[in-house]
Amino acid sequence: MKSVKNHLLRLIKPSATDENWEYFGDKCPYFGVVTSNQYRPENLDERARAEFFETGRQYVSWLMDFIRKNINPDFHPKNSVDFGCGVGRLLVPIARESNSAVGIEVSPSMMKEARANCERLGVQNVQLVESADALAARRGEFDFINSFIVFQHIPPKRGYEIFQQLLALLQDGGVGALHFTYCDPGRRRDRYLKPLFRNIPLLFALKNMVNGKPMLEPRMEMAEYSLNRLYRILHENNCHISHAVYTYHGVMGIILVFQKAQIPKSYQWFVG
Fold this sequence. Notes:
This protein is of the alpha/beta class. The chain has 10 helices and 7 strands. The protein has helices spanning 2-12, 17-27, 29-33, 46-70, 91-97, 108-120, 156-169, 188-199, 201-210, 227-236; strands at residues 79-83, 100-104, 126-129, 142-147, 170-183, 241-248, 252-259. Helix 5 links the parallel strand 1 and strand 2 (100-104). Helix 2 packs across helix 6 (108-120) and helix 7 (156-169) packs parallel to helix 10. It is globular, with a radius of gyration of 19 Å.
């Protein structure tokens, strides 16, 4: 009954992004994380699953090297957070780099799969929670926060609030690596249609039927964030040391890799 209610809610409520994500978590969790057909349930064999987790290991390895080369050569996180951990693709290698790690995941089905993957891969230093709110009492306790290809599926108004929450969890000197999309250079027609599909979910369900897809499969939100606002939030939260790595996967994105540290006093004369 709850599943039926969520499906109906998604068809009439534009802001039902949590319900949309639970659909993918329940029906096709690996495809929901990386939208390649090899990760759809009918194609997901052990080889594809191993490749899925290998891409996560490679990303975290690259990210740690980047942080050590550009921010802190001795960086080895103790307490880490992976926001939007999905089935654990990045959470597992982050946990292996850390003393302890927390995965935040709004979809109960994704969380269940992440827990099973941690157990299967022998990772025992992980806690799973459903929102950043659950960590409010641990402000300033974490020295690493991460999120990759997640905020793009969250409406910006809510995403900016979550960004603030995550920064509050970071201790002084801690490091963050958060990914946002900021521009969709798609065809003009698509740019007109996307707001219609976003605001009238039933219209997207009809489009699915025309294209031979499951009627209830939701549209994946691809939100555009303001770089000005993102950098302002970093500045206002004393994250004055930052690097930008640009990404492109159909939309233009940016990984903000930063340290929660104020501008050194010796440099203050530059800004008056």
